[in-house]
Design brief:
Layout (H helix, E strand, L loop, with lengths): L1 E5 L4 H9 L8 E8 L11 H29 L7 E7 L2 H11 L4 E5 L5 H7 L2 H8 L3 E5 L8 E5 L3 H11 L9 E8 L10 H27 L4 E8 L2 H12 L3 E5 L5 H7 L2 H8 L4 E4 L1
Helix pairs in contact: 3-5, 5-9, 6-7, 8-10
């Protein structure tokens, strides 16, 4: 599996580095830092002076970037294997996505340096936009990492399950994990008139069908060497996912990037973005 570790020097960025010890040895690990110097915002300044100030700032930020990459490389776990360091100049999001496509990256690992839920939804952050647009799995780390043994895997349907299984078949973890499978059914009543007893029967049938679906997926995950448990609940997806993560003591939530796509998903959000904002543990979004 080809892995891209994007670092910016923040605390969560260093926590992202720590997660690598729980992931299997990458076939290729790219260590990336992107320098994006701001242009001088003084309209009365002579162009030559403004350019010189920009050049000085760029040199300084590149020197800091080189030191950051050297420090991060020294902190990598021994099993990381071959590492390629990249110091790039430009937009962090565009650079990450371009490098992901050109190097056929399977997994991006990075820390969240969010703006808060409201500002992030209005203006975006690097992790938010990478999560929306990068064409591979993304592991976003937003706080201290305890371990990666307990994994919560919420599934919306068969397509979601197949995508999750394809990712797990790549054996992304260094050691087998405990996978808690979850299906959340919405609290909806049929569009036709129905009494409470009939509604409860329909809900029970839906939950039973969901349990059968979960058990089928669990069998396939156990064949990959992991242990599993499963549950099906009624409620709002993001809320129930975060609640179940706390209930099982999840070290990681794996969630599919489903629902809205592209610009629409970026502006209005999705279950995966809502989970990232609310969860206390790292979130891995698989495609």
């Amino acid at each position: 599996m080809n892995t891209l570790l994007a670092v910016d020097g923040s605390d969560n960025s260093y926590e992202a580095v720590r997660t690598l010890k729980y992931l299997r040895r990458a076939d290729e690990l790219t260590l990336l830092h992107v320098v994006d110097p701001p242009r001088p915002a003084y309209p009365m300044m002579m162009p030559e002076v403004a350019q010189e100030l920009y050049a000085q700032l760029e040199r300084s930020m590149k020197e800091d970037g080189d030191r950051l990459l050297a420090r991060v490389q020294s902190l990598l776990p021994p099993h990381c294997g071959s590492v390629t360091k990249r110091l790039e100049l430009g937009s962090p999001v565009e650079t990450i996505i371009t490098l992901t496509e050109s190097r056929h990256v399977d997994l991006i690992v990075m820390g969240a340096r969010g703006l808060g839920p409201l500002k992030e939804r209005l203006f975006g952050s690097v992790s938010h936009r990478v999560m929306s647009f990068a064409p591979c799995a993304k592991l976003i780390v937003k706080g201290p990492v305890r371990d990666l043994k307990q994994v919560l895997l919420p599934l919306q349907g068969q397509s979601d399950a197949e995508t999750a299984l394809r990712f797990l078949q790549k054996q992304p973890f260094e050691q087998p994990v405990n996978v808690s499978l979850l299906t959340v059914l919405p609290l909806t009543r049929p569009p036709w008139p129905v009494d409470n007893a009939a509604a409860e029967k329909l809900e029970a049938q839906a939950l039973e069908h969901a349990r059968e679906f979960i058990e089928d997926v669990a069998t396939k995950i156990r064949a990959l060497g992991h242990t599993t448990r499963g549950t099906s609940v009624l409620g709002a997806p993001a809320t129930m996912i975060v609640h179940e993560a706390e209930n099982v003591g999840a070290d990681l939530i794996m969630v599919g990037s489903r629902g809205r796509q592209g610009l629409t998903r970026f502006v209005l959000g999705s279950v995966s973005h809502a989970v990232l904002h609310q969860a206390q543990c790292p979130v891995l979004v698989f495609e």
